[in-house]
Amino acid sequence: LQTSIAPNAILSIGMMMLMIMGKIDISVGSSMCLSGIASAYCLSRGMGVAVSVLAGLGVGLIIGAINGILVAYGKIEPLIATIGTMYVFRGMSEMIMTSTMATTLRGFPDAFIAMGNRKILGLYPMVWICLILLVFFGFVLKRTYMGKKNYYIGCSASNAALMGINVKLHLFLFYVISGVLASLAGILSVARYETASRYLGKDIQMNIMIACIIGGGSLLGGKGDMLGALFGTLFISLLSNGFNLFEINPQWQNVTIGGILLLVVAADGYVYLKRLRHQGKA
After folding, report:
1. Which string of DSSP letters, residue by residue, matches 222-254?
2. pTM as predicted
3. In this predicted model, what pLDDT tens digit does every residue of 46-59 receive, in sequence order?
């Protein structure tokens, strides 16, 4: 269970930080897949573990930068921009796998496999990395001016600009961070399962977005934290695990998660409208 929660939680970290600013990244699953495949492809060509990992992280950085340019500087709606890049990079993953004439890549060096399978104090490395990232970015959001800018932008981007915040640059930076975190989740998943598949991270973006909303985030921006991202991810993962454990039809899992999403979004919208009415704006 911990190996399914950790990659999702790493993705939720990036998604939550964007959601606090009122933005989303639908391409995280594709970023995860392409980065994992890029690292696996480099390993299959005899490149070193360090080089292969850096290659995967570099792919995530480039994807995040492209998303950041489209949203922050191109002023394209995040939903449209990241859906577009989601299809582009998922297609690139398919092309790489097709070129290798295989549905999966496997046979990696022991040093790489150890990154996902050698337990440290009873926990897999990806879990420790996830916990470190949660603490670090939780500190950044709550204790640093850089992190607090996310909340300022989420509450009002125009007011944040009047405060002297470079809104475009800040959005760009956090899209890059989201891309790198997605690539890290992909690389760690490949190391854990000892294989890279074109199906890695497929359709995961909705679960990550739902986890962040359940964890206290808002599509309207201005609220959310790392503890909420973790609890939201735990809830979705435990729910999925429960459905599998009791052998309940997967369609009912989608119905349940979708229903929960509708309830949470409706409640969030109600609270937002109530706040606007209290301020005399609605």
Report:
1. S---HHHHHHHHHHHHHHHHHHHHTT--HHHHH
2. 0.91
3. 889 999 999 999 99
